[in-house]
Amino acid sequence: MPMTPAQMLAEMGIPQADFDDYLIKLGAFIAGLSPIQQAFHIKNHGRTAREIARSLGPDATAADVQGLFAAAPSQAGVIVMSCCR
User: Fold this and answer.
1) Which residues contact 68 (CB under 8 A, 6 or more apart)?
2) What is the pLDDT of residues 31-62, one digit of tens each?
3) What is the 3-state secondary structure (H, E, C) of the chain?
4) Under 8 Å between Cβ of 69 and 35
5) Above pLDDT 70, what percent of the chain?
6) Where are the domains of the chain?
7) Rounded to an integer, what distance in angstroms lies between the CA atom of residue 44 and that of residue 38?
8) What count of Cα atoms within 13 Å lies in the side-chain half-sphere of residue 58?
9) How many CA atoms lie within 13 A of 28 on its CB side?
């Protein structure tokens, strides 16, 4: 029997109201990006540094990708991009 939306949210540890708010804020964030930034975000969000490096070819390493994001400006102590675990 398939899971209900309420069961999925409970398993993910987020109440419906917070999930709805998250989607609204995420949509606003993405809508505020330029088309190039949107494509970059969609392509790379949630990928590991190793996955990104593999997509760049044999000369790129996970350390190279981590260095790229480590050099990026941070906001309130958080790196702007959530990739590169």
Assistant:
1) none
2) 999 999 999 999 988 999 999 999 999 999 99
3) CCCCHHHHHHHHCCCHHHHHHHHHHHHHHHHCCCHHHHHHHHHHCCCCHHHHHHHHCCCCCHHHHHHHHHCCCEECCEECCCCCC
4) no
5) 87
6) 13-45, 47-85
7) 10
8) 0
9) 6
